[in-house]
Amino acid sequence: MNKFLAILYDSFLEVKDRKIFYLYLLIAAVMVLFFAVIPGSLKINGRGIIESGIVDEAMITDVLAHFFNGFFGFMIFLMVFGSAGLVPSFLRKGRVELNLSKPINRYWLISMKFFAVFLIMIAILTLVATVVWLTISLRTGLFFGGYFYGLLLSFVQFLIVYSIVFIIGILTNSGAAAIMGYFIIRIGAGLLAGREVIYGFLGDSVWKTILDVLYHILPKIGEMSGNYISLMTGNGPGDIYPVWSSLFFAAAVFLLALLYFNRRDY
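Above: the chain sequence. Below: its structure as tokens.
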């Protein structure tokens, strides 16, 4: 436990030293100021917009669900940049020899690094998003409980995202390569989601089968986002196939990363 806490603290210091850490704080400050001013001006004859009857609670909930859907996606986008360089830094020449000299199994060492970074990043996400949610709740008088379901889904989504960034970082020892590799996979998987558009041109060729196989193998991060709205508006999960199939992909990628790290000669 002490070893994990040491890696967690070391990872936190790395994140704090990166300029993007202050961007997270800036986003929180801007959102708080924005919502602290805007909802306060939305009053009819001194009454709140819900009390006035102009809009109902269901409409506000739907608007907030769409807002947090986009906000979580934006934060995860930034978290890719904030986390991509942490594993390559951990494995850079000089530092990796020191890390491997410790009496820790390689599997545990790199697993602890993975979960340390993951916990730090979702803690930042939770802090920023919850401050924004709390500001909205106080200014509108509406307790938007669906936010917490969206927050939990964002944890799962970032776990899948970071598994990709993690393995590319281990394979290349480059934060830039990890970022580019992730977005290539992300865009490719997004295009495969709309593969039916070209089915008419492919007929029964083998390419149709290849596209189907690739679709089911790769993570469906974009399609996962479709569950945010339904969860946060109280309608339950939508299509859960993108979620559990992407989790299987993340687990497989994580295991491959562990095997590669254990066998690699540093």
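The longest strand covers residues 43-44.
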